[in-house]
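Researcher: We're reviewing a set of sequences before deciding which ones to prioritize for further study. For each one, I'd like a predicted 3D structure that I can look through quickly. This is ATP-binding cassette domain-containing protein. If possible, include the structure in token form so it fits the rest of the review sheet.
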Amino acid sequence: MSTPVPVLEVEGLAFSRGPGAEDFRLSLPALRLARGGFLALAGESGSGKSTLLDLLGLIERPGRVARFRLCGRDLAPALAAGDLEAVAAPRRSLLGYILQSGGLLPFLTVADNIAITRPADRPAPFAVGDLAARLGLEGLLRRKPEAISIGQRQRVAIARAIMGDPAVILADEPTAALDPPTARATLRLLCALAAERGTAVVMASHSWALIREFSLPVLTARMAPEADGGGVVFAPGSAEGLAA
Ligand SMILES: Nc1ncnc2c1ncn2[C@@H]1O[C@H](COP(=O)(O)OP(=O)(O)OP(=O)(O)O)[C@@H](O)[C@H]1O
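Model: Here's the predicted structure for ATP-binding cassette domain-containing protein, in token form for your review sheet.
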């Protein structure tokens, strides 16, 4: 059987902010994500999960990256050159985001928030009403985000990301504001919809309990010894000790 072609492949990535009060260093030795794959980024608050998602999402620019391939496109040279135009098109067409706060547009209805990411160059993966129904949002389509609950907003954010039919969804703590049963149900929906579309997902989470319950492969943030250059390193392994 042939090995699946990775949709996202990153090697030798390093990022730093500072020096001074903002001094922060992060490195990612290797990440490989196949079509439909799911990967969690675990670590304590402030360990750099959102920063790493921004780097993978082509929003932050790494100081160094040996390899950055997204759906077969080699983006490392453009990142090294700071060529923002060259990364804008793959960012738009291949990546989807679920923000920690939901990030919905307050002046649009739920239906329009979901529809806004529909691909311009191919059919949408779902009808808005069908996708909303899958996520239990069918009665809320005409409401504005302020008139629905936080859990419902997170499900709208998931629907919006899925509607864009991206190759990779980057999800920043999509269940952090939810009680455990709702968090579990929301993550189950995200996993099911992503698997159905073959969408790969990278999800930041500080909930080791949820990561363990869903048996998610995980890259965990750890401090590197000063002798090895210090900073935070994201590497495979258990995140025991993180808050449940
Ligand atoms: N725009 C910024 N300017 C300066 N420092 C920042 C900025 N954003 C984040 N930081 C700092 O970078 C470090 C990593 O932050 P980041 O938000 O990536 O961590 P996190 O693991 O996602 O945290 P949390 O779980 O609380 O969301 C922290 O020390 C944070 O204070």
